[in-house]
Design goal:
The protein is α/β, with parallel strands linked by helices. It has a single domain, classed as 5'-nuclease (Rossmann fold, 3-Layer(aba) Sandwich). The chain has eight helices and five strands. Strands 3-2-1-4-5 form a five-stranded parallel beta sheet. α1 crosses α4. The longest helix is centred in the last third of the chain and has 13 residues. The two termini are 13 Å apart.
Length: 146
């Protein structure tokens, strides 16, 4: 059983944000749901600005359908006061190019920025991405699997 005490900051990977905003079964059925809900109740949920870009790209390629289109969906999802958008700061952008354990994290720029965001914020990442979970196993970030 997972500790229900939420981390100081819980950073949602792009798919985790989509599932949270849509109240999808992937979140509802996850053992991590108690942590997500506790973090939401304490307004400790964060999402990286790169996730906006990543969702818009997925929608433009027909890989996800967002109600009302990407812009409307993002504005609606961010109107939830339990979650805050983390801007792509110069510190995060530069850090994403200099991550420790470079050989362990793939070259996907969005994942690198999300990993850098987690490191800079000292946040715990909620993800199902095997590469990011493996990166966490090596101690470079903290992560919880969905």
């Amino acid at each position: 059983m997972l500790n229900v005490d939420p981390p100081d900051i819980l950073l949602l990977d792009t798919h985790a944000w989509l599932w949270f905003a849509e109240d999808a079964p992937e979140i509802r059925r996850s053992p991590a749901v108690t942590i997500v809900n506790a973090a939401a109740d304490k307004q400790r949920l964060r999402v990286s600005a790169i996730s906006v870009w990543e969702l818009a790209m997925k929608e433009s390629k027909g890989r996800v359908q967002l109600t009302g289109g990407a812009t409307a969906w993002v504005h609606g999802a961010l109107s939830d006061n339990r979650i805050a958008l983390v801007p792509l700061s110069p510190e995060i952008a530069v850090h994403s190019t200099r991550l420790p354990g470079q050989e362990l994290i793939h070259g996907d720029p969005a994942d690198r920025i999300i990993a850098a965001t987690a490191r800079v914020l000292n946040a715990t990442l909620l993800t199902r991405d095997g590469g990011l979970l493996d990166y966490a196993k090596h101690g470079y970030i903290r992560a919880i699997s969905i």
